[in-house]
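Hallway conversation turned thread

IA: we were arguing at lunch whether anyone had actually written out Aldehyde dehydrogenase end to end. Turns out nobody had. So, for the record, here is the sequence (485 residues) and right after it the structure tokens. Reply here if something looks off.
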Amino acid sequence: MNQNIQHYKCYINGEWLDSSTRDSIKVENPANLEVFATVTACSKEDVQYALESSEKAQLAWQLTPAHQRALYLFAIADKLKEERDHFAKLLVLEQGKTFPEAQGEVDGTIQYLTYNAEAARRIQGSMFPSENKNEHLAIYKVPYGVTVGLCAFNFPLALIGRKVGPALVTGNTMIIKPHELTPVTASEFCRLVHEVGVPKGVVNMVVTQNAEAASLLVESPITKLVSLTGSTRAGRGIYKAVAHNVTALTLELGGKAPFIVCDDADIEKAVEAAAISRYANCGQVCICNEMVMVDEKIADEFTDKLIKRVKEIKVGDPFDSSVNMGPGVSSLGMERIDGLVKKNIEQGAELVLGGKRPDGAMFEKGNWYEPTILTNVKNDHVTMQEEIFGPVLPIMKVSGFEEALALTNAREEGLSAYLYTNNYKRHMTAIDQMQVGTIFINRGIVGYIQGYHSGHKTSGIGGEDGIYGIEGFLQKRTVYLDYND
């Protein structure tokens, strides 16, 4: 094996282990497709061991006072601060985002951990008046037990913090399963878990491409809650898989966020937000601007300015400070995106920017695609109907806000939407009627930790972040206590 290729083992019950099968998964740098690491490919037996060790550790962890559990999260966050650039470099290597974006992801992970740690003393139950003398009625909030965190490839580290933070502070144990394309930062995160002395089995990590092993994680009766960030297709599969055990679920699934620009919008502000909200992280953000619906009265002006702004995006080496967009994670993903663009052109859309691999020697290998804009797009076109999850933006003219709202609500998914208008009646109508989990009104892409990230309809159930995200890792236990003689 190339000595420059580092091997990462799975982390189970406080130990670094290779699978008994000795199988491994190669991890490629999406910028040049060079293998820079391998990780242990866990077997079904390895997953079973992780489940059993998590179950064995859970009660003692639950009985540990919450503020003591929080101290471990604070300690991990402190370690991340010390190694910020190290983790950012790993994120660039395995995921392809620019170095500043990677640093931001590390900072976000620290925030997820510290916010949830700070909530340790604010886990609250309730007491209500009893209808009898010498009797108490109380509702306690208790952990589910063994939880599983299934993480997507677009934010390999932040999604771990987003799940591990609330899971651990509320007394659950968690098995992390990172995406097989981006497992390196997950392994390094577990190194920090180990270094700060988190008890054995409280956090485990398995990586696998074995269908039986992956299925066991969610089908096992040991698993009491599954938290998934992934595609709608994956969510539907897991929904079926957990049915037998009636396992609790938190699903953050696919989205197709419309970016609605009304005739009274601040066009300059909308253009800037539309560009950033589409091409951040090479378009691989679940709440990204997936399609523009612009009022026909301002469509030409808006589109011309947006094209000019997107032309300023520099694609290249994600470690170059002047670069704004790196490669996509997956070769198959980029091939799919190119296919969508070609299909949409066949349907009558006009390619006005991009639509291909960038020119130049450095782009001959890797998952590269130019920032792309399509116009003359209709609602039944493929780029309007399918989640793109890449640097391609279709623009469709609409007759006004009412049409855009109707088209948005007619969709099966409902994760997020953007609305640019200065008409407060439209603001309120959107708040009252738009069937999505998050609405950005005159605001570009953002996600505050104290907010709540959730989808409506097929975009998921439950959610993450803030006090409601913490609630998602707690179930209620009602107690009637009679203390009569």
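OS: looked through it. The two ends are 74 Å apart (CA to CA).
IA: good, adding that to the notes. The longest helix spans residues 44-63.
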